[in-house]
Amino acid sequence: MKSLQRRLSVALVISLIIIFPTLWWLTDSTMQDIAEKHVVSHLAQEAESVLAATQADKTGKITLETKQTSPTYLQPFSGQYYQLHSDGEVIRSRSLWDMELAIPDLAEGEKRRLYLSGPRQQSLLVMAYGYNRHDRPLVVAVAEDLSPTLAFIKPFQSRFMLIALVMLLLLIIVQIIILNSVFQPFKRIKRQVNALEQGEVDRLDTDVPKEVSPLVEAINWLLDGLDAQEQQPVQLSHNYLNALKHVIKPPVAELQQLPDEKTGQSGPDTYHSLQAQNADAEHVFESAFWVDPDPSIIGSDIEREILTLINVLESMYQEKNLDITFIMPQTDVLLTGSEDMLELSGNLLKNACKWAQSKVRLSVEIDQTIHLSIEDDGPGISETGMIDLAQQNIVLDQATSGYLLGLTTARLIAQQHGGQLKLRQSDDLGGHCVEVVLPLA
Q: Is the pTM of this model over 0.85?
């Protein structure tokens, strides 16, 4: 990821590098323009003096009285020159020597600025004017070498370039200092994040720029949420462990019956090996899910624990996208011990989720007794299977062993509490319905 500070620094340096040459070019061109305007003003006056020095003799020929002009026009290559055109006649200043300037014909009142190369390759600024004098058209051109003027401007240009370079470096340094100052809050946030990772602080400082304030507030909000979850009672983890315990317990119980089923089919070594493995599995199972129960939780919040159990089952069977409905009235009546109640619900709900298509319903009704009903929209059990269960003549087969094992466990729990378990088809969902009737605690 590119550094934002570096990107801003590069952008500012590039902008300064573009701005300063542009500023230097504008200043240089402005100085040259001012100098040229000064020369043009001087040349306009010289053109008038040259025009005033013209005369026409008796033959109508144009002559020029040199005494009325500046002596610099008499000195060869002096840098100041004039040239007159009249009806094909050309009069040049002595300073031009034998060189003739390429001056166009101009009408009266017309003027033209020209840049020509003079004697000895001098850079000349030429101003040509059109007049009507002595009843004839005249073109007077005066020129001046720009080299002295440019030489006068050059030291200023050098000083300006040096000052501009110094200012450019100073501005780059200043903008780096400003950017470092602007990004100090970001560096402080980075240090606080590192301190947060080390556990030295529990929140980020909110004294930050406006642009990053929403990000810091969102992080602090997440930290507050994590703190709230960590400060919740042990009840949440206890509920999930209990729920997971009752979901896994039926398959472990099914494994424990395997030695008896295979006794007649396997040798003594296999039988004792299965018994030893089951004993180890039971020990690991009880150790992994043993939680020192809180007396204030057991028997007082069965609704929360069943909801937790439902969440676990929905996660286990998420490919079915099950809709598990839980209906329980609000009551202050103390129910049967929540451990047994949760194990009973866990076995029956596990069966229902295993065979359901998409819907499972658990409902609890309380009057003089507790009525627990679990229904699903699965295929259910045949009438023959129900008769076998009613007579407790359980025959485990490969197709429905998990189903019958869960029902058998639920029946034993109900009988231990003086209750009973009934089987029928669900009127609403069309699958299997298990009804358990228990006395109040």
A: no
